[in-house]
Amino acid sequence: MTSPADTIERWLVDYVTTTSLAHKLHPPPRPSRWGGGAPARMAAPGRPPELVVEARARKRPRAGALVDPRRRAELFHTLLHHELQAAELFAWAALAFADAPASFRAGLLGVLDDEVRHLSMYREHLAELGAEIGDFPVRDWFWQRVPSCASPLAFVSLMGLGLEGANLDHAARLADELRRAGDARGAEIARQVGEEEIVHVKFAKVWFERWAGPLLLDAWARELPAPLSPALLRGVPMDVEARRRAGFDDEFLRRLAACELAPRGS
Fold it and tell me: Please, what is the angle between helix 102-128 and helix 184-212, to 10°?
């Protein structure tokens, strides 16, 4: 797609499509005006040559394995790539849903900026662990799922309430595991990112309820693209307190905790 050079749309397109790692990590200042273009969807991001994408996920390191700096580096490399995909996909959503309310699109840009900042935090710690971006393969799992969202409601359901909601659970667990492994700085980064993502989940909840009414588990589940389900978008254990602070009520959390994964092949 093409947009005037001095518009937010052009900046977003350039961020998603660039193959420059420096641009992904430190994008240039963003213009202040929208160009008013029609909704536009990009099928895939540009991938810097440093990042080697693999099709299958690797097993997450067990908690005890994190005493090894190399395993911690692999973990932070994965987290960094999650943040990169999130930043790209918030840019994607601001373009795909160009006809959504201006305040919604402004909120997407705010979350995007947080994700880019988290990228830098992860990269700095990766370097402290003696590793670089590209030392481990990555998987574009978010990109395989999120662009199927046909509406802003579907996007906040999957990206905000789903993936970022699950991150509230994962962040608390990872911070604890890293602390036990003796990585105080890594634990603090995990804690800080989790704390800031509470705001992102609140943003998603506000817009879900504006478009679909009260956030009920069944209503949310209906917006998730198959084969995703509430049970797949929940960490174990759940960080109930963080989720409450993000706006989930106790009935929703009770039902979410009770969700079970479908048997393989079902």
Answer: 160
Instruction: Determine if residue 213 is left, alpha or beta; phi over 0 gives left, psi from -120 to 50 gives alpha, anything else beta.
Output: left
- Quote the CA–CA distance of 252 and 180 in Å, as a whole number: 31
pLDDT higher than threshold 70 for residue 95 = yes
Distance CA 46, CA 212 (A): 33
Backbone angles phi, psi at 41, to 5 degrees: -115, 135
| CA–CA distance, 8 with 10 (Å, rounded to integer) | 5
d(CA 160, CA 49): 29
pTM for this prediction? 0.94
Alpha helix (H) residue ranges in the chain: 8-17, 21-25, 69-96, 102-128, 141-145, 152-155, 165-180, 184-212, 217-222, 240-245, 250-258
Q: In this predicted model, what pLDDT tens digit does every residue of 8-39 receive, in sequence order?
A: 999 999 999 999 999 999 999 999 999 998 99
CATH number of 8-25+61-258: 1.20.1260
Q: Determine the Cα–Cα distance for residues 215 and 43; give it in Å rounded to an integer.
A: 30
Q: Give the C-alpha separation, 138 to 124, whole Å.
A: 18
Instruction: State both tokens at 153.
Output: 């409601």
Closest by CA position to 166, among listed 76, 239, 83, 93:
239
**Which of 131, 126, 136 shows the shortest CA–CA distance to 54?**
136
Q: What is the pLDDT of residues 116-145, one digit of tens each?
A: 999 999 999 999 999 999 999 999 999 999
